[in-house]
Write a structure and sequence with these properties.
With 210 residues, the protein is an alpha/beta fold. Helices cover 22% and strands 30% of the residues. The chain contains six helices and 14 strands. The radius of gyration is 16 Å and the shape is globular.
């Protein structure tokens, strides 16, 4: 089964919201619904999607603002990494207070590093990748060799480490893990900007292990 992946850029800081769909069943996973709930719903309708889950790579405002409206509308659960509870549930740490509209989100399922879940027919492995936040994570689909990297790994860069619960030491360790453990042909869908591959990041990312 080949995954169908579409995306749209949402919100004021141009966040990538992804739509991972099983083409056989039309079941669909929304990854990082950061804003624009109505536009996200329009996209899902256009894809004839049956939403089964929302995956959050981390708890910052630009990745979560539409999570509750989408969850409420489709009746689907929200997943996040277990260490990210403190960010999701604190308006200061999730930066929503900074936008003037402090809010919180509680995940229905808090996942742990190495845990494997099956959603929409896809095997999804959770990789806890702290650095940008304490509970940031990536979602790896081993059968498709696809990684949703959130704000951990970008094309030629990585996420900021000057926000609450962030750590540059942790970020370097997380990047090293991704770039050493995952196959070179893994296609990477980041939280911002363009997709990349593990092979390219090993060669061109300044934070790659040498």
């Amino acid at each position: 089964m080949a995954a169908t992946i579409q995306s749209m850029v949402v919100g004021e800081v141009m966040t990538n919201c992804y739509f991972l769909q099983n083409p056989d069943t039309k079941e669909l996973i929304v990854i990082d619904p950061g804003a624009c709930a109505d536009k996200i719903k329009e996209k899902i309708t256009a894809m004839e999607g049956k939403v089964v889950a929302i995956l959050l790579t981390h708890g910052h405002f630009d990745h979560i603002m539409a999570a509750d409206p989408i969850r409420s509308f489709y009746g689907c659960p929200v997943y996040a990494e277990s260490h990210e509870r403190e960010v999701l549930e604190d308006p200061g740490k999730n930066l929503t207070r900074m936008t003037g509209n402090g809010m919180t989100v509680s995940a229905d399922h808090y996942l742990r590093d190495g845990q494997e879940i099956t959603l929409a027919g896809f095997r999804i492995q959770v990789m806890h990748t702290p650095g940008h936040t304490c509970g940031g994570c990536c979602y790896y689909l081993p059968d498709e060799k696809i990684l949703f990297s959130g704000d951990t790994l970008f094309a030629g860069s990585c996420g900021r480490t000057d926000f609450p619960t962030a750590s540059m030491t942790d970020m370097i360790a997380s990047l090293r893990r991704l770039l050493t453990e995952l196959p070179d042909e893994t296609y990477v869908y980041p939280g911002h900007n363009l997709p990349t591959t593990i092979r390219d990041e090993k060669e061109f990312n300044p934070y790659a292990p040498r």
